[in-house]
Amino acid sequence: MRARTLFASLLLSAPLLAQAASSDYPMEPIHPDLDDKPSLQAGFALYTNYCLGCHGMKFQRYERTADDLGIPHDVALETVVPAGMQIGALMKTAMDSEDAKPWFGAPPPDLTMVVRVRGAEWMYNYLKTFYIDETRPFGVNNAVFPNVGMPHVLLELQGIQRKGCVQKPIILPNGGEKRDPLVPGKPITEEKCGELYVEEGTGRMTPAEYDKAMYDLVNFMFYTSEPARIQREWLGVPVLLFLIVLGCFTYLLNREYWKDVH
């Protein structure tokens, strides 16, 4: 009876998870790469510097993370593990959940499995689409998650992003830009409203650098959503090779057994 109730609960929660991960915003694709250790290490540093204050990863340990990402324990303790924490500790936030309720309306969610629930593409675009909105309690809104109840903690990196009308090149059906026939190389632009744009010089990073930083952060969260994926994908190759060799020997053995019958 208990198992049947649990199964029914999972079926009922599936549409909610699908709805949470959906958005009408045109998503930019992202392709996580667990073999890119520098990216994972950079994402680990971004998480501990900008996210850990509110969002923990209570199912992940610093030691396991450092080992998987190729970071020596002494370097991890010096650069990414918060002061006073042991290398074997779980990656928990210092924020008390009861204090967070009146501050944010609800405790900030744990990020260990967020990419597995939301998807890497959703998370990547969410982190890139905060914009100024004076009507919101924290002064910002989000194009992927409208009316989000979270401050833009990466504002100093990205800079001030607004939503408004901007001049953009006209894109042809073949994907190229429409050019001015009188001025070689000059694109013809049109005004588009409702677009996001970053005010130049307001952030520590250029738009390309910020995109790369968000890729690294999401790549790291993709890793934490299933740390065993690295070993599982690596182990899959020798297992398949073993099965191929075993299959050859099995076929030869079967033919030997049946040769007298035929």
Description:
This protein is α+β, with helices and mostly antiparallel strands and 262 residues long. The protein is extended. The chain has helices at 2-21, 37-51, 62-69, 73-79, 97-104, 114-118, 120-128, 155-158, 207-224, 229-258; strands at 57-61, 90-91, 130-132, 140-142, 161-169, 189-198. A two-stranded antiparallel ribbon has the order 1-2. It has a domain at 30-128 and 206-244: Cytochrome c-like domain (Cytochrome Bc1 Complex, Chain D, domain 2, Orthogonal Bundle). α2 (37-51) crosses α9 (207-224) and α7 (120-128) runs antiparallel to α9. Residues 1-20 have low confidence and may be disordered. 47% of the residues lie in helices and 12% in strands.
Strand content: 5-15%
First and last CA, distance: 54 Å
Query: Which overall shape is indicated by the principal axes computed on the Cα atoms?
Result: extended
Q: Which fold does the CATH topology of the domain at 30-128 and 206-244 refer to?
A: Cytochrome Bc1 Complex, Chain D, domain 2
User: Spans of 5+ residues with little confidence (pLDDT < 50)?
Assistant: 1-20
If you average the pLDDT, what whole number results? 86
* Largest sheet data: 2 strands, antiparallel
Strand order of the largest sheet: 1-2
Per CATH, the class of the domain at 30-128 and 206-244 reads Mainly Alpha
